[in-house]
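Journal club side-thread
Mid-discussion, someone asked how the predicted structure for our own chain would compare to the paper's figures. Pasting it here so we can look after the session.
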Amino acid sequence: MATTKLLCLDPGVRCGFAYRDGLQLVSGVQEFDLRRGESPGMRLIRFEHWLVANWNGDLGPRPDLILYELPHHRGGYATEVLNHMCGLIQKFAATIGAEHKAVHTSTLKKVVAGYGKADKDQMTFAVGQAFPLHLGRRDCDYELSDHEVDALALLRWWDLGMPEGVGRKGRRRMKEAKNGQVRMLRAAGTTGRGM
């Protein structure tokens, strides 16, 4: 059975990404800031160029599946940028012949951290538990970005079989696991960052 080459994206001005092809796991954050006097559309041009330059298979890996976090519709400029980025992800996936899927934030939190309203520290802790070898190779001074955490959470969601939700028993077990994680964090005297 062939391994799925998976690209996970947390789209935004600071785009978290994680790529795994069975042999290696690469993750990080790519920034798409505007320079003084530039049109807001330049951010989208840079994002599309980054997708093509790094993930189209010519110079780098080519994913079979692209998972990305679903944007929240809160209105304003940020929502507009995220919607455009998601459109570019879908366009890119169609261009290279890859599948794509959007995942809601609360689904990720529920499955990965055990609670649909988990905070950033709980998500960082859960991702650190899921990928200890990958994150252990980082420099001691490296602080894990929330955007990279979200991309790795998408990868963890895939590893767990893409569950969409949980029933009553599952919610109880997840709440118990969350309480255990909070107790472990307090005992360690850490917030879960820098694992």
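Post-session note: The chain has two domains: 6-103, 105-188.
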